[in-house]
Amino acid sequence: QVQLVESGGGLVQAGGSLRLSCVASVSIFSFNVMGWYRQTPGKQRELVARITSGGNTHYADSLKGRFTISRDNAKNTVYLQMNSLKPEDTAVYYCNGFNRGDYWGQGTQVTVSS
């Protein structure tokens, strides 16, 4: 069974940084695309960034320059480096893998204090 496990969330002050990790129970080459999404109460889950199996990346326009997605194939891990964090980045962050369907992690809370 495919599992995605996120870690690295927490409480940080505005301007700080966090690095989220998503470890897959299978080779991440199994997924055509892997990505990070975030969700706040009452809002739809939104794309933060995604990376293809070939390493191509795509970011939400509002996050370009602050967030970086990367992957370590040997560790079956996808990362999200988040810099210059703002209070509006507060959300639950979810890891996603797509291969003929969506797989989701359980989410990790990121809270940015002002």
Instruction: State the order of secondary-structure elements, H for helix, E for strand.
Output: EEEEEEEEEEE
Please state the CA-atom Rg, rounded to the nearest Å: 13 Å
Shape assignment? globular
What percentage of the residues does DSSP assign to strands (E)?
A: over 45%
Largest sheet: 7 strands, mixed
> Please, what is the average pLDDT?
96
SSE diagram, text form:
Blueprint (H helix, E strand, L loop, with lengths): L3 E4 L2 E4 L4 E7 L8 E7 L6 E7 L4 E3 L7 E6 L4 E6 L8 E8 L3 E3 L3 E6 L1
Parallel strand pairs: 2-11
Antiparallel strand pairs: 1-3, 3-8, 4-5, 4-9, 5-6, 7-8, 9-10, 9-11
Structure description:
There is one protein chain. The chain is mainly beta. The protein has no helices and eleven strands. The strands form two sheets. Strands 2, 4, 5, 6, 9, 10 and 11 form a seven-stranded mixed β-sheet that branches. A four-stranded antiparallel β-sheet has the order 1-3-8-7, with no helix packed on it. A hairpin with a 4-residue loop joins strand 5 and strand 6. The mean pLDDT is 96.
